[in-house]
Each structure stands twice: as structure tokens, then as C-alpha cells.
């Protein structure tokens, strides 16, 4: 992946601030946190698990530390990627007669406050519709490689960020609100809502593919292997792959994000078409 001079991507870097939000975190030990990461990695609204279950006080010492040179470089990379998303989605929205409002990207370590509850590294990157911010603890990419078998590259990070920004696009277009209304209505079974969740997540993958295509058309940042690294990450967090690795068998009715094949399919459909109008996963998957 080629770097550009684009910066100013609306990034709030909270790393080194002394342990994060000082609020409440989901308890139950490391096992619970790993399960939460599996369930909500690359997810939309994590408030259901962030605000439920037993809790314990986080260990915020209030001490600050200087970021390392490597951490500062990572911050520059995320700032560049965030700016790419702003420029690209502003272009896409204008092409479709709409105005784009960019989300803030929050970099943190351990824990930090969000409007969806206390964000934790173990939750994985997520988007919070309540404050329209993307939350990322970069240490999770090590887990993505070690636990789920994805080879992490710079463009892996770009794909993950683009997926979360895809959830923000859903909020701007009203999709998030419609899905939330369905969930709160109480008229649909858990299995039905799981199918809606799969459609939501695959659409975010589609939007990530659209972003990759449009961004490369404008800035020529892709290098050989970049798209494959995004596909590898998408497939690594397919429900079938995660369930096989975590419990040894697959239960399709419990899928919430889509299979590895579906995640690849919809990311590539977005990349190949570059057309936001081709991403109606709901009509195609919920017939």
C-alpha cells in the first residue's frame, strides 16, 4: 500500500493517556472478553454487550506516557486512512446528490469511554452510532493474526477502518435506525434478527469494497497483494471460520456477520462495481 500526504482525518488519539475511560468494563474474565471480541469484531453497534452483564471498575491510573516512534507512525497511518475515507465518501455522496458528514476515529489502548459504553481492546474495532465515532485499539490486529489466521498488512487496517466507516454510512442513510427499530419492535425472532444482522454486516463489507475502488481510482494507493489481504481479513472473521476455531462446529442460525465466502463476495462486489447503489444486501438476503 502506497502512502500519501493526506492527513487531518478527524482522529482523536487517546493512546498514552493513562488507561482510558475510567468507567465500567464488562466482567467475567478473559474468556468473556474473547467471546465478546469474536461476536462483535467488525460489528456495528456493540452497546448490547458493552452495557450488559456483570461489571467491574477499570484500572485507570491517570498516568500519561510518551508514545513510541512506532506508535506515532501508526497514528500517522490511521490519520491518512481516515482522511482517505473522508475524501472518498464525500465524493461518493456528492455523486449521488447527498452531503457527507465524517465520523471521528478514536485511537485508544485498553479502555476508553464511548456513547455506547466503555470501549475495550478485547471488543475489537467498532462503530458507535450514538456518537458517530469509530473506536480502534490497534493491539487487536495482533489477535486477528494469531487467533483468526489472517495475515495482517497495512491494507488490512485500511479494510477494517473502511468497514467501520461503512457502518457510519449506514447511519447517515438511515439503515442503522431501521434495523434498530426492527430489533426494538419485539416482533421478530432471534433467528430473524440474526439474518438482518448478517445483511447489515455484509453491506458494510460492500461499502468497504466501494471505498477501496474509488480511493484507488483517485489516489493510486493499491499495490499487489493489498486486495487479497483485505479478503483474507474478511474471511478470517466469517462466522463459520470463527465458530470452527472457537467451538469446533458451525451453527448457521447463530450467524450474525456472514460466512467467509459471503464476506469475500460482498467486499469484491463493492470493489468490482464501485457503485454504492449495488449494495442492497437486505433485498438479496432476506427474501
UniProtKB/TrEMBL annotation:
A molecular-function term among this protein's GO annotations: metallopeptidase activity
Keywords: Hydrolase, Membrane, Metalloprotease, Protease, Transmembrane, Transmembrane helix
Membrane topology per record: Single-pass membrane protein
Keyword GTP-binding: no
Transmembrane segments: 20-42
Subcellular location: Membrane
Listed GO CC annotations: membrane
One BP term from GO: proteolysis
Descriptive protein name: Metalloprotease
Source organism (scientific name): Chryseobacterium pennipullorum
